């Protein structure tokens, strides 16, 4: 007996988009900051703050718009990135508003500047602009691989952004800002994204030469001179940024990002050793003759020294705030981190977290940051194209390095750098740049998670005869 059947192509099963999961997580990401806002108001005044409804509606509206755009233009994107970023941004707004209510900071501002301007409304405006930039990235950037066309243009643009602050006055000893009328911009925040685009495009082309065409020197595998040239140029550029702008944070971020991406591209551990040696040599060399860097190192080594306590009082106050927070913290609105002064809501806002949330709350904050990095690395592993893999790991690495540099500086692990904690600290440039970074990661994750289209059935499919005895 024989049976004649047709062979057909079975289409791929459509993967779940996980947008409903994202929406549920966003509800929690909005509810937690609103509850924190209520806690601050009760702690400071003993009553529900009058602005809580407006704050909750504003944060919820921004999160809702972002979710709808992701649902429309990045259906298969990672469902955790947007809620995690929203949670950090919302809690940052609460912490800034809490410091705005401090009588000590108000009196200090009126004494020094003869006026006091609340920073929380401005940060809320910056957050709204950041969400708008996030939306623009998802709508305009249909495919992240388009960025590969601008590999060398992006490097030129990044160098321009890094060089521009040299022509503007220094602020607190560092030249990392440019002033455009009433606005102050920190170009290094945007440069980290553009540099990641350049490194991704360059290493995608040169990774075989850097990994295979190498020679052994003192136990390290070094590439040929013509391939090593751009790496040395990056190292020199990071040192020049440190020398002329006295910007330790951007210099560490700039070179650390390249070392991470080199290791991922070539899979050679020697690059990490080589990068650490070069960065250490450069830092020691600059610290030997640059007074501002020397001063920061001295404050780091002994912030309670009598000779420098007047200048290093912010670092000392930050360490004391961590100590007074204990394990569970003093409670929102009940700490004294406002004693740090004008940088309490920017460089040192993490000390408010450590004092009022305690060690447990600080660990929770760092875990949220770690989850963003983990989802970025997971996106890199899932990406189907090498450029997307390198770009996702580069953006995640830049984010992780910035968190480490800021947290390490405030906690006394490394010298202070002047950078801001992503999403939490006050600063428009930081909020805008990090929302753009999240937008690019979501675009890459959407491409990586999107199911491949099922192949069309062949019109020349033949009948297959199955013979059964």
TrEMBL record:
The keyword Transmembrane applies. Pfam families: FTSW_RODA_SPOVE. It is a multi-pass membrane protein. It is found in: Membrane. The chain crosses the membrane at residues 23-40, 52-69, 81-99, 124-141, 150-168, 188-205, 226-244, 250-266, 271-289, 357-377, 389-411, 423-442. InterPro entries: FtsW/RodA. It comes from the Bacteria. Coiled coil: none annotated. Keywords: Cell shape, Membrane, Transmembrane, Transmembrane helix. This is FtsW/RodA/SpoVE family cell cycle protein. It comes from Streptomyces pyxinae. The lineage of its organism: Bacteria, Bacillati, Actinomycetota, Actinomycetes, Kitasatosporales.
